[in-house]
Amino acid sequence: MSIQPADFRFYTTLAAWWPLISPLEDYAEEAGYARRLLQSGAEPAREVLELGSGGGHNAAYLKSSFALTLVDLSADMLDASRRLNPECEHVRADMRSLRLNRQFDAVFVHDAIDYMVTECGLRAAMETAFVHAAQEP
Predict the structure, then answer these.
(1) Can you list the alpha helix ranges (DSSP code H) found in the chain?
(2) pLDDT of residue 83 exceeding 60
(3) 88: domain range?
(4) What are the pLDDT digits (tens) for 51-65?
(5) pLDDT tens column, 85-117
């Protein structure tokens, strides 16, 4: 069984209400932690792929430090994110099957990974992250 955004009204008909349902300021601390991790490598990340970006609340805090490509399955959530993060690239796709044919310095997955409810789905999402992560020479 595949989970689709239509299964969750928060991500379709209620997506415009996302800023009230899940306030932007609730993401500040976690996004700060993510920023520090993304900058902590021997080569700090510049280009970051976010899988399951939802309404773009993490991106709102990260976009000043990174060039972000935001991916989500829900067109409505991507619309909400575009309003908040017009300078970011947005892609509608499933994190289990996305293939952009390019690599990023880092791949960031926040709580959307919780929707991977089978080992097969989780493996597919991790494969997506792997193929998009720049490999060391």
Answers:
(1) 18-21, 28-38, 57-62, 75-84, 119-132
(2) yes
(3) 5-132
(4) 999 999 999 999 999
(5) 999 999 999 999 999 999 999 999 998 888 788
* C-alpha separations of 20 from 4, 23, 24, 113 in Å: 22, 5, 8, 22
Does some domain include residue 137?
Answer: no
H/E run at residue 69: strand 67-72
Give the model's pLDDT for residue 6.
Answer: 47
Question: Tokens representing 65?
Answer: 């430090």
In order of 54, 58, 60, 132, the CA distances from 24 in angstroms are 12, 8, 8, 27
**Residue 110 within any structural domain of the chain:** yes
Neighbour-count burial of 64, counting CB atoms closer than 10 A to its CB (0-12 exposed, 13-18 middle, 19+ buried):
exposed
| Domain of residue 102, CATH code | 3.40.50.150
Q: How far apart are CA 61 and CA 97, in angstroms?
A: 27
Number of domains in the chain: 1
Mean pLDDT of the chain: 88
